Amino acid sequence: MVGSKEKRDKRLQQVSLLRTIPYSDHQRWWTSETVAVVTGANRGIGFEMVKQLAGHGLTVILTSRDENVGVEAAKVLQEGGFNVDFHRLDILDTSSIQDFCQWIKEKYGFIDVLINNAGVNYNVGTHNSVEYSHMVISTNYNGTKNIIKAMIPLMRQASTGARIVNVTSRLGRLKGRHSKLENEAVRAKLMDVDSLTEEAIDETVSEFLKQVEEGTWESGGWPHSFTDYSVSKMAVNAYTRVLAKELSERPEGEKIYANCFCPGWVKTAMTGYAGNISAEDGADTGVWLALLPDQAITGKFFAERREISF
């Protein structure tokens, strides 16, 4: 345990060092007219990603379900000299998504980067209730799909490609140490990226929710820790791979690259502020992925700026 903590601390020191190294001119593909959207960004990791992206010179749209707190969060960054705009967005509300898309069209015309950070978790510490499983799955998985599908037509066509970054978790790994999926049939289905489909992922989460309703989920081979949250992030991880594969078929000049990352156990409201990583460090890999000059990277899972297995 001590050894793993030392390794983690060393990696975080390396990430902090990398953050201080500026992108060179030949790596910088973006300008002040590059538009990034971050969902669920009024606090925590989302807020920090908005700040870091704006710090790199992008125009960033901070979104929040709660308009009042979103306006205040954007105001803080605007007063700090960052080029940040705000618009309300509820990824579970079709009319809210439509209103947001129309606003993007009218004010900006397009976006270049979409970071899906909006999400919920109702378990803290060792508590593992599935009482809010429907809300967790709906928000973390279905809501993420909703906004991605709405935003794709608005993503700018350019040689550098647009970027989608999904905030997920190691808890959603198929062979994770802390939240392992023991259902071998489901694991095999989600690991087979060549035949994996969105419909197969939908069926998996529907089966989980059905077992929750029937009270049989504990014997279903699902992860034992943060079960509903883990399943939701497992689905997002799988969908990232399906999405990347579909988008890779787009012609040159219309490419969109999709990846996901785990920010770690961050000190935010979602963890009950029990995490061991700052929001600044947690946001770093997401920003790094959004700004990567290497266009060939897509359909991958990252943590601390390193690729990890699904």
Kindly describe this structure.
Its EC number is 1.1.1.-. This is Short-chain dehydrogenase/reductase. The protein has 310 residues and is an alpha/beta fold. 44% of the residues lie in helices and 12% in strands. It has nine helices and eight strands. The protein has helices spanning 2-20, 44-55, 67-79, 94-107, 133-151, 184-191, 198-214, 227-247, 279-291, and strands at 35-38, 59-64, 84-88, 113-116, 162-167, 256-262, 301-303, 306-308. Strands 3-2-1-4-5-6-7-8 form an eight-stranded mixed beta sheet, sandwiched between helices. The longest helix has 21 residues, at 227-247. The radius of gyration is 19 Å and the shape is globular. The protein starts with a helix and ends with a strand.
Write the layout of secondary structure elements.
Layout: H1 2-20, E1 35-38, H2 44-55, E2 59-64, H3 67-79, E3 84-88, H4 94-107, E4 113-116, H5 133-151, E5 162-167, H6 184-191, H7 198-214, H8 227-247, E6 256-262, H9 279-291, E7 301-303, E8 306-308
Parallel strand pairs: 1-2, 1-4, 2-3, 4-5, 5-6, 6-7
Antiparallel strand pairs: 7-8
Helix pairs in contact: 2-9, 4-5, 5-8, 7-8
Which segments are poorly predicted (pLDDT under 50) over 5 or more consecutive residues?
Answer: 14-21
Number of strands: 8
- Mean pLDDT metric: 90
Please give the count of helices.
9
Radius of gyration: 19 Å
Approximately how much beta-strand content do the residues carry?
A: 5-15%
Subcellular location: Plastid, Chloroplast
InterPro entries: CBR1-like, NAD(P)-bd_dom_sf, SDR_fam
EC number: 1.1.1.-
Family: Belongs to the short-chain dehydrogenases/reductases (SDR) family.
